[in-house]
Task: structure prediction
Amino acid sequence: MIPLGHYLVVSAILFAIGTAGVFLRRNLITILLSIEIMLNAVNLTFVAFGRAQGNVDGQIITFFVMTVAAAEAAVGLAIVIALFRHRESLNPDAFTSLKW
Amino acid sequence: MIALIPLFPLLGFAINASMGRRLPKAVSGGLASLVMVASFVVSVMVVWQIADLAPTQRVIEQTLYTWITSGDFKIDLTLRVDPLASVMILVITGIGSLIHIYSTAYMHEEVDREFARYFSYLNLFAFFMLVLVLGASFLVLFVGWEGVGLCSYLLIGFWFEKRSAADAGKKAFVVNRIGDYAFILGTLLLFVRFGTLDFQRIASATAPLAPESMFGTLSVATLLLFIGATGKSAQIPLYVWLPDAMEGPTPVSALIHAATMVTAGVYMIGRNAVLFSHAPETMMVVATIGAATALFAGTIGLVQNDIKRVLAYSTVSQLGYMFLAMGVGAFGAGIFHLYTHAFFKACLFLGSGAVIHALHGEQDVRNMGGLKAALPTTYWTFLIASLAIAGVPGLAGFFSKDEILFETFAHGHTILWTIGILTSLLTATYMFRLVFLTFHGTRRHDAPAPQHPEEEEPTAHGAPSHTAASDAPSHDSHVAPSHHLHDAPAAMAFALVVLAIGSVFAGYIGIPGALGGHNALGSWLEPSFTARSVTTLADAQVAEPGEASGTGEAGGEVNSGVELPLMLVSSVVAIAGIALAAFIWLKRREIADKAAATFPGLYRLLLNKYYVDEIYDATVVQPIRIVSQEGLWRGIDVNIIDGAVNGTASIVDGSSSLLRRLQSGSVRTYAGSLFIGVVLILGYYLWR
Amino acid sequence: MDQATLRFAIQLGIIGLTFFMLINASALLVLAERKVMGFMQQRYGPYLVGPWGLLQPLADIVKLLFKEELRPKDADKWLFTLAPIISVTAAFAAFAAVPWGAETTLFGLLDTPVKLGVADVNVAVLVVFAITSMGVYGIVLAGWSSNSKYSLLGGLRSSAQMISYELAYATALASVIMLAGSLSLREVVDAQNGSWFGFIPKWYVFLQPVGFLIYVIAGVAETNRAPFDFPEAEQELVAGYNTEYSSVRFALFPQAEYINMTTMAAVATDLYLGGWHGIAILDRYGFGWVFFLAKVGFILFTYIWVRWTVPRYRYDQLMQFGWKWLFPAAVLNLIATAAAILYFNV
Amino acid sequence: MSETILFYLFSVVAILASALVIGQRNPMYSIMLLIASFGALAALYIQLDAPFVAMAQIIVYAGAIMVLFLFVVMLLNAPQEDAAVWDRTHPLRRPGVARFGALLAGLLIVQLVWALVRVNDASTAVNARGDVAAISSVRTVGRVLFTDYMFAFEATSILILVAMVGAVVLAARETAS
Result:
């Protein structure tokens, strides 16, 4: 018998970790991974709340999140590849040619 | 059954338009004429069919399919034959087929492609005209209405290489468009008022109402419709296109601008007799305009020198007569005149066509004369038709015209009656001026006089001497001075003779009561002008004595005592007119010139058709052009519209040049701003 | 010894048995493979070690154990070690969800029957699917970590191939699941009990011939076996992803492969061949699992048979086949099944 | 009791793994660790009576998306992430900015904690309400998904399609034409 709060805490921590990753890492792939972490944190929250409510809607939202995550990963990685072809680097700071 | 009537010409059009260019003339022309004849036969059968029915429910309807359905608004594509429509379809198909036959010979110089094009247009026109008269609702009628407009444009501009022809076509189209606009407005107004567009429903909805004393919905609507009518059937102020329409081939002028299309307006008013008779103001306007047009056009016709123009103006003035009749509520008389006029005017046009054909495109009467011997058939038919139009007793024109005048008088419009009489005098005069100038006197034409005109006739149809000229206009294309004048070829002659006979006897179905007849046509048409409902038109019009029942014998019973003297007057006037013409243009030629010399201003005024075209150009065309060019184009379009577009662009440009400072180009800067936003929003929700 | 502990013990026993069977399965399969190959090629195959060479696998294992552990200098230490473990673990774990026998009380030894099978999950099909899809990591990592182009190519190929064929595989599964109306393998099996007209057993293979075919083909591709054995295409890639491996680490890969084969065959039996059902007497006396084993054996034999009969495809042909034929066929089969179910509301 | 232990075990695994994901420079390891964290999460889902989600988590995330990442890393031959170079030019590289970022992070954590405190039934057991059979059954999930969430479902399918096309277009090496 685990209180709902525990799950929320876990997902909050995961989310924080993900956010930190986005800001700290200097590798596009790792940044994408951090985004995945955040998404999963959110998923956990959804499922936990859904369970607490006693219905399946939470799970269903999770599927949608997964779909979006898949799409995001596909496009994001494609962009990463394209970028990597131009500059031999995955450092986001290397791609500032749009700067004013 | 009914559907067949318009379908035949449509079929002809389809075939000629699609594969006509590959067919030889004989086939395409023969086919076109054949479908017309077929549809004529069908029409006769249909008319026979409804003739059996009792006078009050002489109606056959055929709903082809539901055209438009939106909510409770529903338009069926319905064809309806009632007495009025029956007369119209008979005229259209009958005269139409005659003219088709005539055309096979007349247009013979055209190359196959042009030939087929011509006949496809002709068939298409017949189709639309039939749709117009058969349509049971304003919308269906409007289809035909627009269609004939289109066809007249196509046919007038048939020789589109000739600039004047193309211009004339455009003119006709534009002027018609003005009328159509009003017509649409009127239709919409009626729909708003009655919620339906079906003629019968509108009529039976109107019948119980009391006639509007002051301008109300009905008056406005009918007025708008009438403007449309003036556009179609060439009344003041929109008549200007008709004379120019003579640029088209002569049979076209005969078919469209004499026999059928121009009568669309008259027909439309007759079709909505109940409606109009409930709008006395409109009726008054109609009558006045009609009379004015009649006189106006007559005076112009007096001095014109182009044989076809004279006829065109006479058409206008005859149409004026019809509208006069409609205006005074003598719908029957109007339709009657429409019907007789179709015969003799078509005959006149075709005759003139024959003359032109014989003289290889010569249209100026001053260069004609003495053709009587050369073109006997043409001459005699032309003469008969002229007598008929002049209103000489015993011929078609007499009965109808006289009936109109009588009705006018009987309804107490004395002034209009006087105008009418004056006009008939003019009519007689200019018609016979034409006759004498063309056929009598001495030749003023360089082509050698024929030795044996009649032996030309058989060969003429084959036209061996005709160099088949490909380039239009064909008339100017082959000037062969050294070849004999020949009378109308067989096909033409046939049409001419039939029409001439028609213009003699067509009137006898409408002999007024005063002459011991019983106006068969009037009583036949009677039901069409009454609402098919509890109240008949007569009851509905008790309130308006000026418009006692729309047909002849009603008036005849009222005061047949007046009728005979009136007839006498008009016939005397007609004879007088002829005599005058004979005196001037046969005996004392110089009088005319002297007259012209004494009143140069008047003469020039008439010769230039009262400068109406110039006035229109100055008052309407130029202003519109200037406004649209300087105002709309240079002003609004360039400055405002383009300005708006460019302005938007420049605004975006400026703002983005500011915004782009936020574009650090580094992903994590964006992420940072996003992060800030998240923190702020979350904070806000937590504070709440 | 009370029921609870007895029951627990028996459960443990079942698990241990399954594990033991799987290990042996790999060994036996190696032998069988070589024997069958031998017969197909007019040879004896192994016959020296033990009677009819039955102990050959044992000898092989011993040999591998005593070999030296080699690791390329630039290989990624952790992943290089992890890769084989992942694959073999995945292989074993996948079987955990596969039931291989009916409920039995072991001849009245237990008062409540026990289910033959490691675990009975209500989404067993998904579990198997998920875990097998984990197996790809082993190969990919092996290929990448050993830092050699052959390995890398092998790894890439096999992963691409597995991902592509998972689609057809899963879609084929889906239609059976629809028929049975359950994701639990045990329920699917029980749904196939009985027979039509008394002599045709109610196996889904008769309802889903196309599905069965697709499943088997995709299965072959999933397990990287000929004619889809690109990961180790000797002619092109020496030995594919496990070129750099030696000794036990090397041994784990083929073992994982054979276990995967077994799992594939077992699942196929459960889904299409009615699991342990089919012979009434065996069912009644709780010996259904024998029939189950027979079926699995048959399918495995077919695998080997195919391997030594059909030549290897070209890689693009493989992809073409997977995406343009197998997957569409599976989808059509799915749609048809759904339509049939709706129509006959089975 | 056992489930509490399991819960803590799995959550600790998930958190540790995620922390390590962003904790080191080799993306290959990051991916592996992330997969581990996903597995732990899947276990948590099972505890939450959502077996189907758990399986989907493994199949979709671990089985598909992560493989994609793995591929990309392998294809690009994952270069080690370059160390922070503190050039003064970049607006974000100044320590002031960094401190501001740290402040923001602290704020976010505070807010999260605060939000957690304000959750009403945070202390009540998760599985207090609803019957397990219905919630954990795939049938129920499917029914709800294809009735109430039909539109969203279709929309996502279109989204996936678009993403597919986009990925192909982006990653396709422009052929020399």
